[in-house]
Amino acid sequence: MLHKTPGIVLRAVKYGDTSLILSIFTELFGIQSYIVNGARSAKPKAAKGNLLQPGNILDLVVYHHDQKNIQRISEFKLGHAYTSMHVNIVKNTVALYLIELLQKSLKQPEASPELYHFAAEAFRALDRESTAAAANIPLYFTLKLAAMLGFSFAGHYSSYTPFLDLQEGVFTDLPPHHTQYLDERSSEITDQLLQVTQLSDLGKIELNKERRRNMLYAYLEFYKLHLPDFKDMHSPPILHEILG
Q1: Which domain holds residue 58?
Q2: Binning pLDDT at 50, 70 and 90, where does residue 17 land?
């Protein structure tokens, strides 16, 4: 049966002489693998294969069978045309981080329309917002994705609860008796990030390279505490080098 669904390309791997196997986060079916035959051939119609690069949002018509590990695409076209994400080095590096975080976090092919729309809007915002806002999107996206996956921070930063305990996932009055917590300033910024409703406002949160780096790694440690099979990511060191 054919289904129409938007999807975000997360990975494209060469298969055979002319084909690609894609990992796509779809609205209808969650994360799925698709084979696209002829996407790399010399024929003129294969030029559409250029649309299949990671980060692109596509409008898809797909065949779907629950028992199959690899599905097929009947039709695809660009669902959103980026103007800067693929050519701006900061934005492109941020996009690679978002893609890898989705790949590491989404393991089961389960539909999650709310999560899909959140992710798609993050990519669109990354394209349209300033570079200053783009630099803080990884922090925002990591926090919000965690909440949508079912683990988030309880409470808020205040003068009475100035420390964020990453093990317990709660703002506390005193530093906990372990090292997995954020200092007062990083806890305050985390609360600010959690309250952002317009992604353009991310550009107003000023962070130096070292604090941004430490906060992101702390958030990823939070993932490891709640997702037992969450593996170390390759993109953060490159991200911090570019943002620096």
Answers
A1: 1-81
A2: confident
Looking at 81, 108, 123, which one is the last position of a domain?
81
Give the CATH number for residue 122: 1.20.1440.120
Secondary structure string (H, E, C) spanning the chain: CEEEEEEEEEEEEEECCCEEEEEEEECCCEEEEEEECCCCCCCHHHHHHHHHCCCCEEEEEEECCCCCCEEEEEEEEECCCCCCCCCCHHHHHHHHHHHHHHHHHCCCCCCCHHHHHHHHHHHHHHHHCCHHHHHHHHHHHHHHHHHHHCCCCECCCCCCCCEEECCCCEEECCCCCCCCEECHHHHHHHHHHHCCCCHHHHHHCCCCHHHHHHHHHHHHHHHHHHCCCCCCCCHHHHHHHHHC
For residues 37 and 139, state if they share a domain.
no
Average pLDDT of the segment spanning 177-185: 95
Domain limit, last residue, from 51, 81, 111: 81
Residue 117 has what pLDDT?
97
149 plus 46 within the same structural domain: no
89-100 pLDDT, tens digit per residue, is 999 999 999 999
Residue 42 has pLDDT above 70, yes or no: no
My answer on whether 166 and 203 are in the same domain is: yes
